[in-house]
Design a protein that fits this description.
This protein has six helices and five strands, in the order αβαβαβαβαβα. The chain is of the alpha/beta class. It has a five-stranded parallel sheet with strand order 3-2-1-4-5, with helices on both faces. The radius of gyration is 16 Å and the shape is globular. The termini are far apart.
Length: about 170
């Protein structure tokens, strides 16, 4: 299973901890590292701050995930996420409930520009508080990874400058 750079971990953890959503959808769960951070900082830390022990059966915080490639979903991911939906994000997301936060790390660059814009629109429609995207700062091309075509990265989907122009256009419309 491929991995990603750890550069954004501390920024995402701090941002999500400050926001404190009670439901998170992690699109493209991979190893589950962000799901684990969300579990720790949204479910474990607040309980310990109140002097309570962690209760794995607690439903205070729901953390679900979407993974396009079923073989990536194993015991580790099932232990982290409350529910995992297997399928392509654009096909699965419309049927899911709303979440406080929709999160996607290293996912957007795998879409064509049109599908990337459609993903962002759909994610925004399913997020009560917001959508948090982590994506490489560089345009890059990447072939299949471990035989999975969905991991091929497409250069220029929303590369430098284009992401900002998309977001500014979205703010004017929305």
């Amino acid at each position: 299973m491929p991995s990603s750079f750890p550069d954004a971990l501390s920024v995402v953890a701090a941002w999500v901890q400050a926001l404190r959503p009670t439901s998170v959808l992690d699109v493209g769960i991979g190893f589950g590292k962000y799901g684990l951070l969300f579990r720790e900082y949204l479910a474990v830390s607040p309980r310990s701050e109140r002097g309570e022990g962690y209760d794995a059966s607690s439903t205070e915080v729901r953390i679900d995930g979407v993974e396009a490639y079923a073989p990536y979903v194993g015991p580790l991911q099932r232990a982290i996420y409350d529910r995992i939906y297997v399928g392509e994000a654009l096909a699965v997301l419309p049927s899911l409930p709303r979440y406080d936060l929709v999160f996607a790390a290293d996912v957007l660059e795998h879409f064509t520009r049109a599908d990337g814009e459609r993903f962002l629109e759909t994610a925004a429609a399913h997020a009560a508080m917001g959508v948090l995207i982590v994506t490489p700062a560089l345009d890059l091309e990447q072939g299949e990874v471990f035989g999975q075509a969905a991991k091929a990265a497409l250069a220029g989907v929303l590369g430098p400058g284009r992401a900002e122009s998309f977001l500014h256009a979205r703010r004017r419309r929305g």
